[in-house]
């Protein structure tokens, strides 16, 4: 009798073990988190407007010659939308409408910025990942904006839109700008604070700007190089401050670091460098 019971117990134990092993094999493991976004790098430095602009507020011939830039420029008309209390900007977002010369329609961008603290680019990318921006979402582009001393991670969703009744460099009216940005709002922007937050804020927004900038394109050290002249309302609101920004892009972090320092040295040697970080968007949000 005991031998029969022992055999029965042994069989039951073996069956239970088989069930447990089968369940452990079948059970899904923890979901693997998506990796951080892979950014490109845009080095942005300021040039001293009094040194690089003529009395006509255009780049001097010496500057154009140094970077192999033609006399022709590309115009860009830009405006941002936000509430009077800047609810969108204070949450790190910048919805923008831009009209670029020679292009049909309007470019709509929804940009989310993350500060880079202590030069720790990877920590900023991890913060963005935790905020829902990771490598699995190919609709957004990540970029490190590499200034004089400050770096910022920007994550941008770009769309295009059109409205009839506009020509040349005209930007849409407030009503049409709201409509374009609301109808094309991506989910991560719209639901950032709560569901429908972004479009709700845009519904009571106003225009900051517009600013009509001019871009020249050339080369420096084998890199495609841009110089943009931005006429922004001055702090007093009675005149114009010209912001001159030189920039280049690269996919390589080491190249960005090396060429950043080399470009500063080059601009300093010419007497063209302005040792400040570029804050165009902030100036526009503060002064309009």
Q: Overview of this structure, please?
A:
The chain is α+β, with helices and mostly antiparallel strands. It has one domain (40-287): Hypothetical Protein Pfu-838710-001, CATH 2.40.320. It has helices spanning 2-26, 49-52, 61-66, 87-90, 121-130, 174-183, 187-190, 197-203, 253-270, 280-287; strands spanning 40-47, 74-82, 93-100, 106-115, 141-146, 151-161, 206-220, 223-233, 240-250, 273-274. The chain is globular, with a radius of gyration of 27 Å.
Uncertain runs with pLDDT below 50, 5 residues or more?
1-10, 12-27
Question: Which of globular, elongated, flat, extended, rod-shaped describes the shape?
Answer: globular
Q: Quick one: how many beta strands? A: 10
Query: What class, by secondary structure content?
Result: alpha+beta
CATH class: Mainly Beta
Query: N-to-C SSE series?
Result: HEHHEHEEHEEHHHEEEHEH
Helix count, DSSP H or I runs of 4 or more residues: 10
């Amino acid at each position: 009798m005991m031998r029969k019971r022992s055999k029965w117990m042994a069989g039951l134990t073996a069956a239970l073990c088989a069930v447990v092993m089968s369940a452990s094999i079948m059970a899904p493991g923890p979901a693997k988190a998506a990796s951080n976004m892979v950014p490109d790098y845009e080095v942005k430095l300021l040039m001293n407007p009094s040194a690089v602009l003529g009395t006509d507020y255009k780049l001097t011939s010496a500057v154009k010659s140094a970077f192999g830039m033609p006399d022709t420029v590309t115009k860009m008309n830009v405006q941002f939308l936000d509430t009077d209390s800047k609810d969108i900007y204070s949450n790190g977002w910048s919805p923008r409408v831009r009209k670029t010369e020679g292009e049909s329609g309007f470019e709509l961008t929804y940009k989310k910025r993350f500060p880079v603290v202590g030069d720790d680019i990877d920590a900023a990318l991890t913060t963005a990942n935790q905020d829902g921006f990771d490598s699995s979402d190919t609709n957004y582009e990540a970029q490190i904006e590499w200034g004089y001393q400050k770096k910022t991670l920007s994550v941008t969703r770009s769309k295009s839109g059109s409205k009839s009744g506009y020509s040349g460099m005209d930007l849409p009216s407030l009503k049409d700008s709201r409509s374009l940005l609301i109808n094309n709002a991506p989910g991560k922007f719209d639901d950032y604070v709560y569901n429908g937050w972004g479009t709700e804020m845009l519904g009571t927004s106003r225009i900051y700007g517009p600013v009509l900038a001019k871009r020249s394109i050339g080369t420096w050290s084998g890199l495609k190089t841009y110089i943009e002249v931005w006429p922004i309302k001055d702090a007093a609101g009675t005149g114009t401050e010209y912001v001159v920004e030189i920039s280049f892009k690269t996919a390589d972090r080491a190249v960005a670091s090396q060429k950043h320092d080399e470009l500063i040295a080059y601009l300093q040697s010419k007497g063209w460098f302005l040792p400040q970080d570029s804050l165009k968007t902030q100036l526009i949000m503060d002064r309009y």
